[in-house]
Amino acid sequence: MTPMVEPSFSLRQIALPAFGPSVLYGMANGAILPVVAFTARDLDASVAVAGLVAALVGIGSLVSNVPASFVTARFGERRAMVGAAVFAGIALLLCILARHVAMLAAGVFMMGMAGSVFALARQSFLIEAVPITQRARALSTLAGSMRIGVFVGPFAGAAMIHAMGLRGAYLVALVAMVGVGTLAMAVP
Predict the structure, then answer these.
(1) Which tens digit of pLDDT belongs to each residue from 15-37?
(2) Both ends of the chain: CA-CA distance in Å?
(3) Half-sphere exposure of 46 (CA within 13 A, CB side)
(4) How far apart are CA 138 and CA 11, in angstroms?
(5) 0.85 cut: is pTM over it?
(6) Burial of 32 by CB count in 10 Å (0-12 exposed, 13-18 middle, 19+ buried)?
(7) What is residue 188's predicted lDDT score, i.e. its pLDDT?
């Protein structure tokens, strides 16, 4: 029995459209996660409510995992990623403009929802775009690229916080999310 020969494939061929959005999405999350509770406290939330608001990213992601699969299956990976970036951009605008803790909570919850759709769409794209012999390497690189963004995000957020206060972190995230949407549109 002869082994199956696959055409020449390199992860470098799809590096920017495949991993670029993940770096930027991780950067957006990394920029805002350290300041969500502080923002809630600035909006006169108690410590307990501020903690709950910070947890809403995870809760939004948890409740959106199953609907995320329907969204990705119905609209495809590219549209799902672009839609998640737009939805996250709206969520970030809510966070930037929040004058009440409920408005901030809605934006943070929406970020979790968008993250769920984005992550599933990214993984689905790689599963289809990468030959099975390199799929494990591609998926682990995807996870690493997200972690790089989460590492860089707080530093970029801190620089903007120094310049313009807590809302600066959300602005960094918003700019990164515009980049996510732009790169996601370039996905083959």
Answers:
(1) 787 889 999 999 999 999 999 99
(2) 34
(3) 2
(4) 7
(5) yes
(6) buried
(7) 66
| d(C-alpha 131, C-alpha 10), whole Å | 10
Query: Which alpha helices (DSSP H) does the chain contain, by range?
Result: 15-32, 36-42, 47-75, 77-97, 101-129, 135-164, 167-185
Spatial CA neighbour of 106 closest among 3, 21, 176, 36: 36
Spatial distance between the Cα atoms of 137 and 143, rounded to a whole number of angstroms: 10
Radius of gyration (Cα) for the chain, nearest Å? 18
* Helices 77-97, 167-185: crossing angle, 10 deg rounding: 160
d(CA 142, CA 186): 17
The whole-angstrom separation of Cα 35 and Cα 169 is: 7
Tokens (6 digits) for 112: 């979790």
The answer to whether 118 touches 88, Cβ cutoff 8 Å, is yes
Per-residue pLDDT tens for 97-135?
Answer: 999 999 999 999 999 999 999 999 999 988 888 889 888
